[in-house]
Design goal:
Helix content is 46%, strand content 18%. It has 423 residues and is an alpha/beta fold. The longest helix is centred in the middle third of the chain and has 35 residues.
């Protein structure tokens, strides 16, 4: 294989992201809030312009390097306005949670790169279009105030920009491709990592592989000692060759049981498997400054993205990536260990973590956008999901906290005070 797939968002982030970890303006906007805001803006545009508005259009375009490497770029712009007699206008919309920011304070280099990549891809895939107008719009989810800037791009500028951005990304893409080819070659050739197959394991693995290839759910009840971990991990790794998923999440209820999955992967490595895995850990347990750490003031958040590439070069040289190894690399580069763990995870094939990392909608690491992430999910001791699921989707509030809030708002905001008293 001599092809690497990358999204516009990933490409723009790798090339242009700079500065500190996100502060309140972006970090406090949930995915659901951002989606609702986008839908409102789309609705307003269609009411104002009718059928000449196109929303959420997908784009695909390939770059071929001098060495013959193909980088296939895919993305989906937010909206496009097709006014007769005028260049198409592509919109990229970003939401923020503040009413006091100016455009200059909001704009990020990776957002501009993302928008310009959409413009370049549109021009390069539509030979009859000579130029486009590109609008980057920031909209407050609290006041709906908007700030925007518009750029113009010709076909010649698009071609030059495309070559510059993809030329810069090509070296990193080659490292990703080399790993992927080694992974698939070794996954094809690897044999069962233990001397013998226990009774029931062969049938177990056949059905697991069938479920993984078909995308169906597969529940197994089996006695202790049959070797359930290897019976799901081995076929899951074999299944990577079928190209139906790119990452495998192995989820457990307790941190202590993740060691079994780590040991199983190491047994397969001894049998010739080349695979990058990572074990996740909560922010509270990884942060050197404890649970009250604030990204606005944390020294490990300062210029995080400026230091990230060098740190990634170290972490991606490892096969088995643990929280301890991540912390060691992060602190040497003076960056946040937990954020670095999550950024490294994007380039790992097996992710060992907690149920929350996939199923808890507040902290999930799985993209909610369809088609953005192709994953297989293996759940250890799935009977624990019943109680954990109740915890994830249940809410509670302390009466003492409500009483305290009533006192805080008394005489300051009558509406909020009344609503609190109704609880």
């Amino acid at each position: 294989m001599n092809k690497v797939n990358v999204s516009v968002t990933e490409l723009a982030s790798y090339i242009s992201r700079r500065g500190n970890l996100a502060g309140g303006s972006y970090g406090s906007v949930s995915g659901a809030e951002g989606t609702r805001l986008h839908q409102k803006i789309f609705s307003d545009l269609k009411k104002a312009y009718g059928d000449i508005v196109i929303t959420e259009e997908s784009l695909y375009y390939d770059y071929i390097s001098a060495s013959g490497l193909t980088i296939s770029v895919n993305g989906r712009f937010d909206a496009m306005l097709m006014k007769p007699g005028k260049p198409p206008m592509i919109f990229e919309i970003k939401s923020f949670n503040s009413t006091k920011e100016s455009f200059d304070a909001l704009v990020r280099p990776e957002h501009v790169t993302q928008l310009k990549l959409y413009g370049a891809m549109y021009l390069l895939t539509n030979s009859d279009v000579l130029d486009v107008s590109l609008t980057l719009r920031y909209v407050s989810i609290t006041s709906f105030d908007s700030f925007e800037n518009t750029y113009e791009m010709s076909y010649e500028e698009a071609l030059k920009y495309w070559e510059e951005i993809l030329g810069e990304y090509a070296a990193f893409a080659k490292t990703l491709l080399d790993y992927q080819n080694s992974l698939l070659d070794s996954a094809t050739q690897i044999k069962f990592p233990f001397d013998s197959i226990r009774p029931g394991q062969k049938e177990f693995m056949k059905k697991a592989l069938l479920a993984l290839n078909s995308g169906e759910a597969f529940f197994v009840e089996a006695p202790t000692g049959i070797g359930k971990t290897v019976s799901v991990l081995y076929p899951a790794i074999k299944g990577l060759v079928k190209n139906r998923y790119d990452q495998i999440f192995y989820l457990t209820a307790k941190e202590a049981t993740r060691g079994v999955a780590e040991a199983t992967l190491n047994a397969m490595r001894k049998s010739g498997l080349i695979i990058r895995s990572i074990t996740l850990r909560s922010k509270e347990k990884m942060c050197p400054f404890g649970p009250d750490c604030d990204a606005k003031f944390c020294p490990l958040a300062k210029d995080y993205y400026g230091k990230l590439k060098d740190a990634l070069e170290e972490s991606l040289a490892l096969d088995e990536i643990t929280p301890e190894k991540i912390t060691d690399i992060a602190l040497r580069h003076n960056i946040c260990p937990h954020e670095f763990l999550i950024d490294t995870m994007e380039y790992c094939t097996v992710i060992i973590g907690d149920y929350n990392h996939v199923f808890n909608q507040r902290v999930t690491l799985v993209s909610k956008e369809p088609g953005n992430q192709r994953i297989a999910v293996l759940v250890d001791e799935a009977h624990n999901m019943i109680d954990r699921g109740r915890d994830m989707f249940s809410a509670s509030i302390s009466l003492s906290l409500v009483d305290s809030m009533i006192k805080d708002f008394k005489g300051r905001n009558t509406k909020v005070e009344t609503l609190l008293q109704q609880l």
